[in-house]
């Protein structure tokens, strides 16, 4: 027996979220969220500016046209963000800096999420003593302030290349994620559909890969979106301390470092890269909050 | 409660041992030694360097160095700081209280402000006040710590020269001030770094407190309290707030490593002579014993912070005391 859809229409009920699958329903909820759309738009503009930096930026980022006459020029039409001590255009440096800041953070967060998911999935799925040992290691690692490990590694090794920086940032950022994934995997591997898959003869790896992990991913995606802002700020802080991104590359943090000792006189050098970073991080946080709301099946208030 | 404390103490020892091992491994895997730079700049003859390496045990096998290192740590002997030319313990003794003063001030202010802001927002959910303050808090929550510190310096030390640019005391006048004058001098220097940290931590606490309050507002005990006929205000203050405060304290405990990280940067920007500044300068000068001590103090502070949060949560929630 089938009930025509108009029956539902008559009482104002439409079977929406239920028949679309959780991911599609989440995407629909996200698209209806105006704040999330704006945040996504802002991020898209930033990424495009970074990718097409040579076209967008008015000057070359490292060009030093006139160290005497054009140094530390206040913001004007020809230099909207002013110039720095070496007469370099700050706006162009901020646009090129977006490449480094966004690129390093994105790659580092991808690495961190993969490592955290792998560790958490193994611990949660295997369980028992293996799980206990793996999680105690995480407890200890979480007790060390991340900035201390980063200071140690980057400070002691000296001149570190960009790929190494990504590696170090990624490998110090996965501890929290592994906990999240482990809890989800533990809960999911006790559920009926996992049991069913195993009863039908699927091997552990297949069950984990095809049935458990896809269902454990939503908190990881939220954590990655919220975490990327963190990594951008962390990399900037390290570059500000002079041990992150090194010349000739420049991230937003390195530009702020250039401006830090000029803060009393040439405030624009440190102000603008910081504003760019602030806008980026706010956009990622708004998007992350919206994603969490969209992916949370408990929240039934929204249609 | 006693078992909770014992478990915490055992965990602290394990964590500190792991941290000590990681620091040892990193410092010994890294290229160079504390005397390499001095040789490079010509201040030290290579033969003198060898003599110094032998004197401080850097020429021994790595396993022997590790055992010696652990034994010294267990005895509480932290060694000699090359860069400061004084015992490590003495360097720590001046730096740790300064960090505690800065972080303690910021934490207390942030807890009060953050919980108040959360209450204000959750009490009038979706009102203009809620939306407006949420937006402002999100901005501070997203703000890079060292950049906010620089901007505070720009605004209140340069543009409006109300507060001193950096340091903890006035380098010239402090000697000549009386007791109250000295306290006032320190307070004036504390304002900008403490405000920077307070703004950042308040934003994190308020965001969490609002969510925790709204969660608790949906719970059955809130409905029961309402059904008893209590006013909205009484329910919010005595039932909802009381039940949400535990998660906030736990959050602050979990945030501790990040707070220390923030303190490191804010101290560096304002040249506040605390642990953060000590750690950065120790790493830059390859002062291994000072690096080790700073990392271990950081870990100890983190574990203590977490333990304190656990105990406070247990005090706030009688159910946890039973366990």
General description of the model:
The complex is a heterodimer of chains A (303) and B (323). Chain A has 303 residues and is mostly helical. Chain A is built from 14 helices and no strands. Residues 1-19 of chain A have low confidence and may be disordered. In chain B, 78% of the residues lie in helices and 1% in strands. A two-stranded antiparallel ribbon of chain B has the order 1-2. In chain B, a hairpin with a 4-residue loop joins strand 1 (80-81) and strand 2 (86-87). Chain A binds chain B through residues 136, 139-140, 142-149, 151-153, 155-158, 229, 233, 236-237, 240-241, 256, 259-260, 263-264, 267, 270-271, 274, 277-278, 281-282, 285-286, and chain B through 11, 14-15, 18-19, 22-23, 26-27, 30-32, 138-139, 141-147, 150-151, 153-154, 157-158, 165, 257-258, 260-261, 264-265, 268-269, 279-280, 283-284, 286, 291, 294-295, 298-299, 302-303, 306.
Total E-strand runs of chain B = 2
Instruction: Report the C-alpha radius of gyration of chain B, rounded.
Output: 24 Å
Biggest protein-protein interface?
A: A-B, 39 and 49 residues
Q: What coarse outline of chain B follows from CA principal-axis ratios?
A: globular
pLDDT averaged over residues of chain A: 83
Radius of gyration of chain A: 24 Å
How far apart are the first and last residues' alpha carbons of chain A, in Å? Answer: 27 Å
Helix content of chain A: over 70%
Strand count of chain A: 0
Proportion of residues in helical segments of chain B: over 70%
Report the portion of residues of chain B in β strands.
under 5%
How would the global form of chain A be characterised? Answer: elongated
State mean pLDDT of chain B (0 to 100 scale). Answer: 83
Low-confidence stretches of chain B: none
Per DSSP, the total helix count of chain B is: 13
- Structural class determined from secondary elements of chain B: mainly alpha
Largest sheet of chain A: none
- Strand arrangement across the biggest beta sheet of chain B: 1-2
Instruction: Please tally the helical runs of chain A, counting DSSP H or I stretches of 4 or more residues.
Output: 14
The succession of helices and strands of chain B, N to C, reads HHHHEEHHHHHHHHH
């Amino acid at each position: 027996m089938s009930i025509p859809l108009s029956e539902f229409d008559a009482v104002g009920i439409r079977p929406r979220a239920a028949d679309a699958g959780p991911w599609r329903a989440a995407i629909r909820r996200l698209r209806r969220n105006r704040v999330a759309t704006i945040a996504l738009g802002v991020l898209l503009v930033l990424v495009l500016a970074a990718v097409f930096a040579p076209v967008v930026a008015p000057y070359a980022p490292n060009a030093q046209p006139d160290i005497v006459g054009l140094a530390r020029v206040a913001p004007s039409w020809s230099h909207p963000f002013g110039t720095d001590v070496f007469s370099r255009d700050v706006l162009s440096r901020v646009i090129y800096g977006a490449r480094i800041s966004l690129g390093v953070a994105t790659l580092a967060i991808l690495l961190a999420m993969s490592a955290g998911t792998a560790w958490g999935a193994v611990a949660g799925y295997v369980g028992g003593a293996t799980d206990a040992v793996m999680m105690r290691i995480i407890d200890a690692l979480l007790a060390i302030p991340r900035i201390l490990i980063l200071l140690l590694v980057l400070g002691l090794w000296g001149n570190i290349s960009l790929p190494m920086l990504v590696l170090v940032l990624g490998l110090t950022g996965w501890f929290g994620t592994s906990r999240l994934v482990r809890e989800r995997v533990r809960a999911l591997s006790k559920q009926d559909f996992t049991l069913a898959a195993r009863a039908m003869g699927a091997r552990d790896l297949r069950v984990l890969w095809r049935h458990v992990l896809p269902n454990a991913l939503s908190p990881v995606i939220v954590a990655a979106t919220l975490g990327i802002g963190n990594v951008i700020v962390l990399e900037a802080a390290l570059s500000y301390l002079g041990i992150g991104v090194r010349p000739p590359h420049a991230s937003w943090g390195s530009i702020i470092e250039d401006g830090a000792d000029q803060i009393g006189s040439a405030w624009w050098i440190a102000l603008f890269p910081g504003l760019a970073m602030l806008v980026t991080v706010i956009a990622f946080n708004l998007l992350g909050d919206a994603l969490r709301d969209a992916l949370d099946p408990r929240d039934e208030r929204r249609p | 409660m006693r078992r909770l404390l014992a478990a915490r103490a055992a965990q602290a020892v394990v964590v500190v041992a792991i941290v000590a091992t990681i620091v040892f491994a990193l410092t010994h895997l890294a290229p160079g030694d504390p005397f390499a730079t001095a040789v490079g700049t010509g201040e030290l003859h290579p033969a003198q360097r060898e003599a110094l390496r032998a004197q401080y045990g850097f020429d021994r096998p790595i396993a022997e160095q590790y055992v010696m290192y652990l034994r010294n740590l267990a005895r509480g002997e932290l060694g000699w700081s090359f860069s400061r030319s004084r015992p490590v313990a003495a360097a720590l003794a001046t730096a740790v209280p300064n960090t505690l003063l800065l972080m303690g001030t910021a934490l207390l202010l942030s807890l009060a402000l953050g919980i108040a802001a959360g209450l204000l927002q959750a009490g009038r959910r979706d009102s203009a006040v809620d939306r407006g303050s949420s937006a402002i808090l999100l901005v501070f929550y997203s703000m890079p710590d060292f950049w906010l510190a620089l901007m505070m310096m720009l605004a209140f030390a340069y543009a409006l020269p109300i507060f001193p640019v950096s340091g903890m005391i006035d380098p010239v006048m402090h000697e000549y001030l009386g007791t109250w004058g000295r306290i006032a001098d320190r307070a004036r220097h504390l304002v900008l770094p403490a405000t920077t940290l307070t703004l950042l931590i308040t934003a994190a606490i308020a965001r969490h407190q609002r969510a925790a309050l709204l969660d608790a507002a949906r719970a059955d005990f809130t409905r029961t309290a309402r059904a008893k006929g209590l006013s909205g205000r009484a329910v919010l203050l005595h039932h909802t707030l009381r039940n949400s405060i535990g998660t906030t304290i736990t959050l602050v405990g979990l945030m501790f490593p990040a707070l220390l990280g923030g303190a490191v940067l804010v101290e560096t920007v304002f040249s506040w002579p605390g642990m953060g500044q000590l750690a950065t300068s120790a790493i830059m000068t390859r002062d291994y014993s000072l690096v080790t001590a700073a990392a271990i103090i950081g870990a100890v502070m983190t574990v203590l912070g977490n333990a304190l949060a656990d105990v406070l949560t247990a005090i706030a929630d009688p159910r946890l005391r039973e366990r």
